Amino acid sequence: AFKAAVLIQRWYRRYIARLEMRRRCTWRIFQSIEYACEQDQIKLHNFFSYLMDHFTPSSSKERDFISRMFVSGESFKEAELEKYCDYESMEVPDSYTGPHLSFPLLPDHATALLEAFKQKQQLHARYVLNLLHETRKHLKQLPNISHISTCYSEEVTVCGDLHGQLDDLFLIFYKNGLPSPSKSYVFNGDFVDRGKQSLEILIVLFTFLLIYPKEVHLNRGNHEDHMVNLRYGFAKEVMQKYKVHGKKILKMIQNVFCWLPLATLIDQKVLIIHGGISDTTDLDMLEKIQRNKFISVLRGKKRKESNRNVEIQEINGESKVEADSAGNEAAPSLSLEPRPAQAPSTANRLEFSRWVRQTVQEQIEWCRRLVDISESEEEELTYSSVVSLTDLDGPCWTCQEEWKQILDILWSDPMPQEGCRANTVRGGGCYFGPDVTGKILEKYNLQFLIRSHECKQEGYEFCHNRKVLTIFSASNYYEIGSNRGAYVKLGPDLVPHFVQYQANKTAHTLTMTQRQGFILALISRVEESAFRALREKLFAHTSALISTFKAYDKDNTGRITLSNWATAVESVLNLGLPWRMLRPQLVRSTADGMLEYKSWLDDLAMEQRSQEHIQSSLLEVIYRNRSNLETIFRIIDRDHSGLISFEEFHQTWKLFSSHMNIELTDDGINDLVRSIDFNKDGNIDFNEFLEAFRLVKQSQ
């Protein structure tokens, strides 16, 4: 009996160990793909910045388009925003059966909202805009770092990322209670994106913020950013739910986000920030930054605005850069303006191009002197910056140090190694080690940091000798059963107490035996979902994989070793995954340890091929670039209508073709736009936009 018990125990431990290994591998796959996607977002932004730096508009129309699209026009003046988002002119019809709001808000309004959202009801656009208007007024009165004390409430509850998962917020309130004078909450950013009910979460949080302004505190996360929202679903969600007034709601939310506080300090001892810190983090500077200037941190590195209005005018077919005084007074420094030499004939394109570059460079140097930018700065004042200076009503240029302060606290992650280095995995922020944490804690006399930003399997995790706590509140983040959510409660002793949960309605109704089977089924489901995503990623890089495999296949046998397969796949995807361990799930076993890589890639293509008979190479390109193309489409679609005009399409393709060295005449672009406008409505939707890239790929 004793031997049997030991045997069963060994079998059970081995089984649990294998399950844990499967769980960790699955986790690594999900996280690697998520961070690679975030890296793509940064690269896309850098791509547009590069285009702006190397593209010279040939007409005022092109200049206006680019300035509106990629540089300026992000923010309204105060009066313009109020007029644009005028909610008082909207009437609520008698047929409306949803909740009603009146200001100032009362606890009953919050309760009614929660019940309405549980019943899948929608708040009328008038009330949404009114709520956003009042929230914005309140946030503008708050400091960059909120200071709260446990003396005024029994405890403070800190919640991490929610990412549009309303069920998790309901579960937190069910377990912990609603915000009240005796129950304070800190919500640590990333309220939106990925989930399907981001707007409802914002409405609930903003409602409680206005009812209990001293007990509810909101920090900004890296997803409270308009450029990020274009990629990860929040902008699309708002436009789908509010087709008539969605543009106004998005514009107001964009403005509200930039007024969110950057951090919260509990009892002057516990610092709560969304991402992390760096070796240059300065809380004193963070306190003084004009945070509303940073509508999108990804737009970053804004420079000081000139007190001159630099205009690029087209006169008789020749580009001329002129500086115009901001007022009618003549400035003494005006004489410093360089006078452009006589333009050569436009018939000699090479000579004319050199003249334009020289003239623009002279104006750049002049603008640098005007705005007092030193030659030693890392970033040059580029053409895009000169164009930006034309918008005197836009946000003032802020120094790179301030931008980096905000970028670091929103995007950074801790690492076990000492030091501080660039966060190349996400593409933004930095990795900070325990030594950096120790210095910041000592400098500001803090006990520990609370941050979010990273999904954790148990919902929370300590690191850096328990001096950094990560809290993540969105359960089932990657897939149902992938992770728990958690929140942490701090009393006057500042000792953290954790509550974990998993928002899954099915599991609560099962018996213990049924629950065990359910858990095993969940693990298999999560694992299959991860490998399906990984196979899609592999398929999207088919061409690069073939080239790399051929480098290992010196004799052109069509076969490589499994070890070389693992090395080649990592060199192409750069996901940092244990490919040898994952191989049995991705490659059928072979007796001689060799892989016929062409047939393996054909199998991948068969899995991914859609019902439409699209050529495999074209499908690969679309798989690899779909997220980027969708983000580009939404950037071009400034009014979020889901359609872009022929003119916007025309100017965008001129921008792309100049970068890709594709000779496309105006007539050629017009022919292309007419050929992809399948329904002949004079506009282009996203599917038609994809068709344009497919046609160009075919022609190449």
UniProtKB/TrEMBL annotation:
InterPro entries, per database record: Calcineurin-like_PHP (IPR004843), EF-hand-dom_pair (IPR011992), EF_Hand_1_Ca_BS (IPR018247), EF_hand_dom (IPR002048), IQ_motif_EF-hand-BS (IPR000048), Metallo-depent_PP-like (IPR029052), PPP_dom (IPR013235), PPP_phosphatase (IPR051134)
Region annotated Disordered, chain positions: 309-342
Record's keyword terms, sorted: Calcium, Hydrolase, Manganese, Metal-binding, Protein phosphatase, Repeat, Sensory transduction, Vision
EC number: 3.1.3.16
One term of GO molecular function: manganese ion binding
GO BP terms: detection of stimulus involved in sensory perception; negative regulation of MAPK cascade; visual perception
Top-level class of the enzyme under EC nomenclature: hydrolase
Cofactor: Mn(2+)
Catalysed conversion reaction: O-phospho-L-seryl-[protein] + H2O = L-seryl-[protein] + phosphate; O-phospho-L-threonyl-[protein] + H2O = L-threonyl-[protein] + phosphate
Pfam families associated with the record: EF-hand_7, IQ, Metallophos, PPP5
Domain EF-hand: 540-575, 624-659, 664-699
Functional note: May play a role in phototransduction. May dephosphorylate photoactivated rhodopsin. May function as a calcium sensing regulator of ionic currents, energy production or synaptic transmission.
Family, per entry: Belongs to the PPP phosphatase family.
The protein's name in its UniProt record: Serine/threonine-protein phosphatase
Organism: Balearica regulorum gibbericeps
Organismal lineage: Eukaryota, Metazoa, Chordata, Craniata, Vertebrata
